[in-house]
Amino acid sequence: MDFDIPEELQLLARTVREFVETRLVPLERQVEDADRIPDDVLREMASLGFFGLPFPEEYGGAGAGDLGYCLALEQFGRTSAAFSNVIGAHTSIGSMSIYLGGTEEQKRRYLPDLTAGKRIAAFSLTEPSSGSDAASIQTTATFRNGCWLLKGTKIWVTNGPIADVVVVYAANDRAKGARGGITGFIVEKGFKGFGVGRVDHKMGLRGSTTGELVFDDCQVPEANVLGGQVGSGFRTALGALDIGRVSLAAGAVGSSQHLLELGIAHAKRRQQFGKPIAANEAIQWMLADSAVEIHAARLMVYDAAWKLDRHERASLEAAMVKVYASEMANRVADRVLQIHGGMGYMKDSPIERAYRDARILRIYEGTSEVQRMIIAESLLS
Ligand SMILES: Cc1cc2nc3c(=O)[nH]c(=O)nc-3n(C[C@H](O)[C@H](O)[C@H](O)COP(=O)(O)OP(=O)(O)OC[C@H]3O[C@@H](n4cnc5c(N)ncnc54)[C@H](O)[C@@H]3O)c2cc1C
Q: Which class is 235-380 in CATH?
């Protein structure tokens, strides 16, 4: 077994790390206060190819595969989660739905602009009455007069309010549900009947735009049925979510590693009772436990990404790494805040932001409970 990361992927990770440190870290406060990533920074990220990392070069991607993409997201995890979130929703689940489920014509029509970051993508499944039970969606798709009409409301769509292209999952046959009743549609911002509703105010992830999308008999041409196959949408959504879960875990590893480094530095620097707090076993164990868990999560990410790159089925590994890394990231954030004491609780500390940002990891792209359901189902089948 070879654990070496190929040289070109190591180079990619170093490039992202340098960009994160020089360009993004200085913007953290601005993004937090404005709740927005400046447009010129998004353009710069696009020009560096960060919106097309895993996709093949024939579609304008960087050809880094899922492992390269995860290595990059690990480095993006070292700064405000807004950056990994805009890339993640665009790449892992938005554009990825088209890459995994689209026809060749759809891939050639949409992916080059998406991988170049000229257009931003989103993935829209969740509805007010359908969260964990994603197959119960109520948004309907009806074929009338040569085109599809979408009717319903989607919520909490990451990138939704800023997206140019949204892959929307709707029910063509509610009775059939996950088994042939859900279809993916490639919806463009300008389509008649498509509207952006409420933009959400969140606990964390400031700078990442999330909101409601309204489909009022939204007209979608037949050519925009994902994969040209009515009823095949749920499978595509699950495939994209596998990659989403692994890459999200990669970001969790990066943010935890960064927090651990901040925790070590603070523990060595901060003096109480006449010695650095790092001299206390209570502090050392928090650092040691964090290092162990980060190492385990990182190996799980690399293993799952490697399997995805080999086109192996990795839904089980994706669920395992998602639940482990997201819960690990919450434990690490909590410990590192504890090591910082009151200082970690203050708004001008990056720990406070990271602590809030970590909480969402256990909820979106399938909650911890849903991941455990997937794992248990596999064990018991
Ligand atoms: C910031 C943010 C961004 C998001 N981005 C997107 C996006 O881009 N696209 C998109 O489609 N969706 C998005 N979502 C939606 C997200 O995927 C859902 O929030 C998530 O799947 C959980 O659904 P829910 O919030 O409705 O919780 P619910 O399904 O209502 O669950 C509530 C609680 O009950 C538990 N629960 C539910 N069923 C069971 C069960 N059978 N057994 C045990 N426990 C159970 C859950 O684990 C959870 O703890 C986003 C959400 C947020 C908050």
A: mainly alpha
